[in-house]
Amino acid sequence: MNLPNSITMSRIAAVPLLIWILSPVFPWQGPGHYGVQEVVASVVFILASITDGLDGYLARRRHQITTLGMLLDPLADKLMVTAAYIILVAYTPSIVKPWIAVLVIGREFLVSGLRSIAAAEGFTIEASEIGKLKTVIQIVSVVAALLAHRWDYWLFFPGFHGGFILGVHFIAVTAIYWMTIVSIISATDYFIGFWKKIDHASDDRRKRRSFVLSRKPKAAAEHPSQIS
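Now predict its structure.
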């Protein structure tokens, strides 16, 4: 297994690790370990998210794009997103509502389905800028929701004019709802792009079919002996 595929596999392995960290059996939680659980989970999720772009970059740079990698990469992405939001529904229910998780996960499967159909039809749907923005907001929303389980706000430099307050809970709620809105816009953008290309592909197939049919009488005239 090459390096890009190994990195992708590490992202898949991060899913059960994240579930274990946020489970009641995680050893470093409770009194004496204030916030360790949330911080460790956030770090694991951030590192796993970074590998999303790293494996693709290395595969292109090292000319190691493989069929296995093309299968594992979207699978790892969907597993990470699905696991994160299902966990958050149980872990921070006041921030991540079940309908939000259903919408976000449904969007991921919708885009995967459209890409699969596009591949079968012989064209691709490129990742849009909105899709990339959605990914960034998604990472921020997950990390903020994890941290908001333990903190409502962080106070920095308390001795300097009263300090600087960072509203962790406010950021989490804002990021979650912004991510939901951007996910809807991104899904709509993908669907419109897919619809335009599938129409174009259908027109091309009809033109090719008409061209082939128009040549058959001429071919038959050139070879009358073949007509019974």
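The mean pLDDT is 81.
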